[in-house]
Protein 1
Amino acid sequence: VLLIRNSIATYDEELQPGFQVTAIFWKLMFWCYSPLIRVNKVRFVTDSDQLSEEIALLARLQVDVVPHPSLIFQDRPVTQSSGRSGKGLRIFLPGPARFEKGADLLLEAGKILEEHAGRTITFVLQWENDFEGPDGSIHSLDVSASAQARVEYDIIRAPLSSEEYRAQLEAADIIALPYRSQAYFARISGVAVEALVLGKPVIYTRHTWIARQMERFDSGIATEENPLALVEAIDLAMEDFEGLSHRAESASVDARNYFSTESFLAGLLGESEEGNGNEALAGSCDLLYFLAVGEGGLVHYAANQIKALADKGLDVVVLGYKPLERQLNTLGTKIR
């Protein structure tokens, strides 16, 4: 089983896919493995609908899409925030501030809201360092709001531990994911999955992998990639926060089932009813070779997927990569 997680195509401003020279490697690999795929000795899967479409375009090969497993709900029940009691709203943009995550857009939206917010808003930003945009400009943190403004900023200057991250998710009333679509058109977001599973309302960018998930579960508010559109989305959230929260909580029931380790494992081994027609692996499968590359969040998400497999009794062999090994040790998962 090969779980493909990295986008093969690049996207222009109109979100049209294009393939670079490295795509030749992928096309050759698909061609070499195709005889084994046809007799169900090998399976290629991905956790992104858009990435599956990229592979079909590049190699005319259908690849099943499996749900990204979320482990965040397994250890203890979720603690709901206090926003429903009539207090101010707490809006959280998880992860280190970066251009592709739209941290600059949310900061600009906050500046606009300082002028007219009818309810106190606290923006929670994990802004460890300034970051550079594609044009070379440096995006710095400036949160010098006036004393009269009803916008506050809770700035996190250091990396969050798993417990601190979970606490911030639970304390948030709204999860803001103003990601830029060129970077996140096919790329998954584990934060979006966790928000869905926890029943948190999400403000998200159209034409992204996140948008497809929110539409699947009828949750959240869609917006465009600019500060004014973000302001409109936040205003809508403030006007109907109770309704938005109710939709998110209702969606979480189906989201927990879809993004469960059981669904992930069934899709990985070809036992899911939602597959594209590919059959399950021929014979028994009790040994899985798992190759994972990447850094940062990719390591965290890959470790979650490996833990889900190991917890089901599969003997998982991970090929090298010390950061992933350290993350698995943190999760208490023993692998080879």
Protein 2
Amino acid sequence: NVTMKDFFKFLGGSLFSNNNVLKGKKRKFYQSLIVVILSLIIAIIPVFVYTMRVNGSQAITKTDNSSLDVSLTLFSKYLYENEDVGLTTDAEGHFVATGFKEVSFTSGEKHLLTVRVVEPSEDLTAVAQVYRDGIDENGKATETPKSFMLIQDTTIGLYTFGKGATNTLNEDGTIKTNASFTSSYVYAASAFKNQDFASFYKDELNGDQYCIDQWKNALNKMYTPYKTSNVLYSISIYSCINVLIILTMSLIIMILTRLKSSQCEKMSYLQALNCVNYASFSTSIIAMCLGFLISAFAPVAFILCIGIRCVFLGFKASRSPEQ
């Protein structure tokens, strides 16, 4: 098909040539719309991949996890050795805690983890802040926050602090700045029904490793519902930001062609948008590569790449062809 051949030839030329991109203002809008949709998908691939790689068990495997593997093993051992306490999930996706309200685990004088059952009527956020503030027996905030697990009906919140985590206090003893979490995860019972957490522990050789493996498996499964929503949320947010950048750059290019200093034909907004849509294709490929090379760069790679290209494209669009 001659038309398709011409389109792909033009698209290939627009990868590097701003002159070619500017010719796109005369092409049909639906063609550039297809290109920009493809570009947005390509640009978001690194974010999608990195978000999908996040697993619930990373709370354990993360470096400096405040001995969470030891803490969870001690918790399962506590459930296993005491017949009057228990933690299970039922067939409807609810956590069922019996025989305890709060229990803390230590290693010598070091606090490892506090497990607290939060009633449905309680404010989970407020309870979490108490542990983050390191509230002592006198009800005062301290410089030492506590790693904690909160169990409430259908969810578990697991929050840990690394070595040296310190709250900053005001002169009157109130919290000025909270220490940052080493990890903070929320888990759902709906993805781990009819399970008994006491069964994770086995009083035998390599029992501790078995227990840790069971917790990793459980945390991965219970994190799945939140993982899916986090992926959708991340993709939606970054895609919307990328669309806004494209729309903004189109507006800037249109304005540049309408300045008194401009020596070329004025562009309408739709023509400028056409050009930026085509320019986005090569920048999305570059952004994807940069996102995989430097993970921290993935969310903003497309924004920076399209911004840089549109700066040059704008200058080109506002100059006469002779220049």
Protein 3
Amino acid sequence: AGLIALGGTASYSSAAQATAYNTTVNPAVTTLANGDTVTTTNQLGISDISAVSPGVQIGSGGKITVNSTFNSSDATPAAGQRGAVVLKNNVLNNLGTASEVTASYTSGTYPVANNALYGIYLGPTADLKADGLKVNVSSTASAGDIYGIVGQSAMDLGTGSSISVNGTSGYAGGIGVAKSLKADHLTMDVHGATSVAMTVSNNATVDLGSGSKINSSATSIINGINMSSGSSLVADNLTLTLKPEAGSTSAQGGPAIMINGSNASANLKNNSTIRTEASGSSGVYIFATNSTFSADNNLNVTTTGINSQGLIAQGTGSVVNTGTNATITTYGDTTYS
């Protein structure tokens, strides 16, 4: 469908005829190219579990659109996960520029056999490269978990990618990082009964570049970035906001940044802002040994709500260093910095 290989690098032909698919596409069999669309109901959009597949290779400047909907009658896919894009191949997959991936769950409750829905799911050896990627995941189901991207592999989202996750009940997760994530000017909005913007697993690395904006909202429990042992986070000019969903009066806030494992580190460099607006919320909470949170200049942390907390470090050897010109403000009954 118009893919051209030049010296081992995938590119695209602008004159090629785009193809519209209405069934699951397997890149091991079918070559996707610039302008192609994949629209499926009750089945995966793109599924690749082949060890010898060339993967998805759209190339710089090319884009694809994937839109998959599911409901409670769906059987568990052979790939093992339910989502718009499920990749378990052994290559670097390139989704090009400004590609759009949408996964939605439209009715009923999730099947017991597999209660999670993914925009993109990546196996341990299926790396991902994209620029300006747009991922939208939504659910009106009465149960189940939804995720924007879960990557067991290396992910490079380039500049200007966005992730939107909206659920009416259950758990909503933005990005799960098991190995590494790089992104610049990333925008993420996560909404659910319980929300977690990002989960960073043991020894995983996250580089959010400059100017990323992350919002996490929920009706019950609100969380930001959760970090495990040995993991690291670096960002410059980051804006991280936690707040209850509109009209919610009982939402409880967790930490905007939670370091819950030893030897982990988070550095927000310059001009970063953390804001939480729920009872029990905190800006940064270290509950581990030998872990660090630091900023270089102009850190601004504001928390509001009963028992809200600014910065907390608990654990032998753990350190908080706010750098120069930091402002830490807490509002509400029984608040402290």
